[in-house]
Amino acid sequence: MQEKKILLGVTGSIAAYKSAFLVRLLVKAGAEVKVIMTPAARDFISPLTLSTLSRNPVLSNLFDEQSWANHVMLGRWANLMVIAPLSCNTLAKMANGLCDNLLLATYLSATCPVLVAPAMDEDMWLHASTKSNLDKLASFGTRIVPVEKGDLASGLNGEGRMAEPDQIIQYITTNFFLTGPLQGKKAIVTAGPTYEPIDPVRFIGNHSSGKMGLAIANELHYRGAEVTLVMGPSTLELSKNGISVIRVNTADEMYKACNEVFQEMDIAVMAAAVADYSPETTADEKIKKKAEKLTVELVKTKDILKSLGEKKKPGQVLIGFALETNNEEAFALEKLKKKNADMIVLNSLSHANAGFGHDTNKITIFGKKGEKFIFETKSKKEVARDIVDKIIQLHYA
Ligand code: CTP
Known about the structure:
Layout: E1 5-10, H1 17-28, E2 32-37, H2 47-54, H3 71-77, E3 80-86, H4 88-95, H5 102-109, E4 114-118, H6 122-126, H7 128-139, E5 143-144, E6 148-151, E7 157-161, H8 165-175, E8 186-191, E9 196-199, E10 202-204, H9 211-222, E11 226-231, E12 244-247, H10 251-261, E13 267-270, E14 277-279, E15 298-300, H11 304-311, E16 317-324, H12 328-338, E17 343-348, E18 360-361, E19 363-367, E20 372-374, E21 378-379, H13 380-395
Parallel strand pairs: 1-2, 1-3, 3-4, 4-5, 8-11, 8-13, 11-12, 13-16, 16-17
Antiparallel strand pairs: 6-7, 9-10, 14-15, 17-19, 18-21, 19-20
Helix pairs in contact: 1-2, 1-8, 3-5, 4-7, 9-13
Bound molecules: cytidine-5'-triphosphate (CTP).
Cytidine-5'-triphosphate (CTP) is lined by residues 190, 251, 270, 272, 274, 276, 301, 303-305, 320-323, 335.
């Protein structure tokens, strides 16, 4: 970020305390930072703190008795405008072109790219108006750093926390100032369950949430890769953060989506919990409850990971998952070999708080040259970081 000019907008949110860390990290990374605060932001963090850390006066007013702040030139001065935290109120104003303070005037006149890091309580975050305002912002070309899940100012635990400053820095680096280690690489990630239809209203599915796959897709994206996420029928909300998403329902649709694009990929991570069997036939109409017994004939689905392993060319890196309850290591190593993968991530169901639906996971990674890395139970986000670190270390270092 050497010599990049960054305009940081701070709005009235309890997360404004994180802006101090963000300014520090930006300055440390070599950027020149100017801070604009909304009037409400000044109730949450002192302008003196931000001006000291940014080594520039903090701007707040469109004009005072002596002068008029040139918001047009501010927008032109910057290589990037970052608004972090972005409150619900400022979001709504930005989405509707309101202009009653210096930050909003600068946003409207900015010719540089704009990035926002929303921060709000979960109920506000989930409100339809927030979603529609964010969609509007995205349609203007404004980039959005995904919010995090965790403790909120209300005392509740949920979605809406502003991304941590180091995550924002990573987002900036990989999206605007391209230096990520996976820059120029293309990656495909599968995530979530698959639903195999029995009739128009019933299906065979599993408890996979898609959290692990989504965390890996986000992490690969943060490290600079161009990511395609093939997502099964998960209820997770996907942020508009530059990742291409292909939605599928069945194992067969996932197979087709992956095989269609695999050739152009450098990295493929198969984190989905794909159904191993699917009903041989799907009834066109709802099956009525008549007989005492109902038999549904199942046939094996195509193994996506294996099919990619068969096609894999030198230079392509293929990662699979193994979910085992017994003989974990032996089964994982067998999968590594049988499916011609480069790495297998073993997910153990025998550990509390690991696996389906949990926010944490405990993994062991096996590499094809006999490498073995054991990790502690961590959040799925941290696990994703460990997995991507190993991809880089073993294949791109
Ligand atoms: N997988 C896949 N396509 C399938 C089934 C599984 O791509 N039809 C992938 C998963 O995404 C995962 C890996 O294969 O990366 C391991 O899946 P798993 O179901 O544990 O292994 P199987 O080979 O199906 O063996 P088993 O069910 O006997 O453990």
